[in-house]
Amino acid sequence: AERAYLISVSVGLSARAMKETTPDRKKLFGKSSYLVTLFLNFFAMHPIDFQVELDGERMEFRASDLMAANCGSLGYKALRWWPEVQPDDGHLNLCYLEATTGFDYLWVVFNFLLQRHIRTKRLDHVPAQRTVTIREPQNLPVQGDGDWIGNTPIQVHLEPAALKIAVPVKS
User: 128, exposed or middle or buried, with CB in 10 Å at 0-12, 13-18, 19+?
Assistant: First the structure.
């Protein structure tokens, strides 16, 4: 069954956090409950070799988080993947992070909060015009817009201009 997601679909530690964050933890910590789950997995993260297709072209990425993003926001206004990742630019971006420790994640979050988007071979993004398919490894948790939605493999397809937004007229 096809489902629509506006912001992102991802595999890796972020998806694991969505799957492992319990309703009780959400009640107790609110929006920060996912950060608590990430902290509990602080030393359990390991990069994975992913087999991916971008618009039919096969690629490999080593990453601890792999995200097909239509929007740069990561749940908090000040926390963005990249300024170039925009919901109205007509393409998806495959964002990847190869973090070998929790400290790598903290470094990225710290720099993102300071709006320093440093591209490296371990932290970057590549555009896809229409389709991102994450083929391997199989049976990893997948999140869509903050909810656990299943396991890999997963195909994400962009539907340009599918969302219509009504805004009030300025008086």
Answer: buried
Query: CA geometry: angle at 18 spanning 16 and 21, to 5°?
Result: 100
At 103, give phi and psi (nearest 5°). -65, -35
CA distances, 7 to each of 83, 103, 143, 169 (Å) = 14, 26, 11, 26
Among 153, 156, 39, 159, residue whose Cα is nearest residue 105: 39
- Terminal-residue alpha carbon distance, the chain: 43
Per-residue pLDDT band at 72 (split at 50, 70, 90): low
Contact of 36 with 25, CB cutoff 8 Å:
yes
* Contact of 141 with 151, CB cutoff 8 Å: yes
139 or 100, greater pLDDT: 139
Looking only at the bridges linking them, the beta strands covering 147-151 and 65-69 are unpaired
The candidate with the shortest Cα–Cα distance to 31, out of 42, 16, 46, 21, is 21
Closest C-alpha among 19, 27, 1 to residue 144:
19
Sheet holding 92-97, edge to edge: 123-128, 92-97, 65-69, 8-12, 141-144, 147-151
Cα–Cα distance measured from residue 56 to residue 63, given in angstroms and rounded to the nearest whole number: 20
